[in-house]
């Protein structure tokens, strides 16, 4: 996996990322190519791919990008921003996740999530994502990993709500602890959750 700070993705991968965005444009509702105009509500007024270049350039310039390669070719990527302010708190904000059609259902989403969670725990901050209610694929994916935090009805036009999803730092730490215990579940000597030399308090 590649992990690139804003503006540092190699030229070759950046080119593949642009090609992948173009291929998967219509997988999003509304398409990514129609998101260049902030506050736009008339999604049928633009031609296909008119906004992909602007979307792509903003992404590689401002976002941290995680890439996954399969068979020496970009199979998918996830982009996030930090710090992102929402309701007076700093978040790691996940903006975009795209997987090539031929690599879907091959565990790439789980790979993105593990990498994002590790970054958030290192930064000691919660994770935020948002999508539009019309993007059913994203709504389903986010519901597996996060809790619904807020809904702005008709925020992007009639019948198009903005839905916010949050994973708190406590939740991240709890899941990490469960993974650790599961990893050592079949070992005779398991790691202690107590500090070295510590004793459990009586109930």
UniProtKB/TrEMBL annotation:
The keyword Transferase applies. Gene3D superfamilies: 3.40.630.30. One of its GO terms (molecular function) is acyltransferase activity, transferring groups other than amino-acyl groups. Residues 16-179 form the N-acetyltransferase domain. InterPro entries: Acyl_CoA_acyltransferase, GNAT_dom. Keywords: Transferase. It comes from the Bacteria. This is GNAT family N-acetyltransferase.
């Amino acid at each position: 996996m590649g992990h690139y700070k804003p503006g540092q993705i190699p030229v070759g991968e950046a080119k593949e990322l642009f090609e992948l965005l173009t291929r998967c444009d219509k997988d999003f509702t509304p398409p990514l190519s129609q998101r260049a105009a902030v506050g736009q509500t008339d999604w049928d007024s633009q031609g296909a791919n008119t906004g992909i270049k602007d979307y792509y350039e903003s992404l590689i310039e401002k976002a941290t990008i995680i890439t996954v390669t399969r068979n020496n070719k970009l199979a998918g990527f996830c982009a996030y921003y930090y710090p992102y302010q929402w309701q007076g708190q700093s978040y790691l904000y996940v903006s975009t996740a795209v997987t090539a059609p031929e690599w879907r259902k091959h565990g790439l989403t789980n790979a993105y999530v593990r990498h994002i969670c590790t970054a958030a725990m290192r930064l000691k901050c919660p994770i935020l994502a948002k999508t539009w209610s019309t993007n059913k694929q994203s709504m389903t994916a986010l519901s597996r990993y996060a809790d619904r935090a807020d809904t702005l009805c008709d925020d992007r036009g009639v019948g198009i709500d903005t839905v916010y999803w949050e994973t708190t730092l406590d939740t991240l730490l709890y899941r990490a602890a469960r993974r650790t215990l599961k990893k050592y579940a079949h070992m005779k000597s398991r790691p202690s959750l107590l500090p070295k030399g510590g004793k459990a308090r009586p109930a």
